[in-house]
Amino acid sequence: MxxxxxxxxAGRTTDALILSGRTTTLDQAQALDRFLAGIERRAFRIAxxxxxxxxxxxxxxxxxxxxxxxxxxxxxxxxWGPLFQTILQSRIRDWYRxxxxxxxxxxxxxxxxxxDEEDPLASVPDTAQxxxxxxxxxxxxxxxxxQALRTLxxxxxxxxxxxAWEELDVAETARAMGCSEGSxxxxxxxxxxxxxxxxxxxx
Amino acid sequence: MSDRDPQDxxxxxAHAKRLLxxxxxxxxxxxxxxxxRVRVAALSAGVVPRWKLAWGGGLAVMAxxxxxxxxxxxxxxxxxxxxxxxxxxxxxxxxxxxxxxxDLEFYHWLVDADQTG
Lengths: 203, 117
Known about the structure:
The complex is a heterodimer. Chain A is mainly alpha-helical. Chain A is built from 8 helices and 2 strands. Chain B is rod-shaped, with a radius of gyration of 44 Å. Chain B starts with 5 loop residues before the first helix and ends with a helix. The interface between A and B is large, with 57 and 39 residues. β1 of chain A pairs antiparallel with β1 (47-49) of chain B.
């Protein structure tokens, strides 16, 4: 659903808008809205797999959206995709570093972080319909995949999701991850190797 | 890296992609609505309505006009008040003007001499 009608209904916009300090047309704002609507759910899933927490994932997606709108909204539409991935991956890395430090401090003070860990099966959507055997098998496979992805080091997880799911090439993945193409290849190879080992029994 | 089978990689990738795509389709309504709200918030924060800029620009224009009127009305009075005094001072302190005054005395004497002579 487009956000522009919602904004218009709330009296937040008029016939023309100002983006990043410059005038832009309603068409441009709508294009940005369409773009974000198209990628938001995948972005959420990527952030959710990385964090294991839906609220944290939502915050990361919102931060990434906000930065894209404020800093890069005036760029060519074709640039938004790679830029958004770069911002999101950077936000995930920052979150990961912060969380690592927090866990270290908790361990230092003798608190266990085990309570915060989410059961991957809990994130499987609960549907009211009775699922068929095939659907149940797919849900189990998805849960297993998510669990396996979460056991990967962050860089390997990023490399795998960007290459295999987002279908970015090596150079685009390297830009999004902020590392060299050689590192991307190494992380991706290790990720595939580990996933194959972990998922062997499920797939 | 030599022991990997590219065919296995492709299958793993394809299977993972299918499952992840399906997981996006299966996102519950609450999450979808939250994402929509998040998008609206990001767009609202990043996009400033035109009337806000027009209001700010209007205030700036009004301030410039007010300043212009102030200078327009005050400046001539200032000149009238201080102008002659400054001009007198210039006359008094300028060496050229002293010479001119002496020359004038000489011209007056010359005129008087012509008339009498």
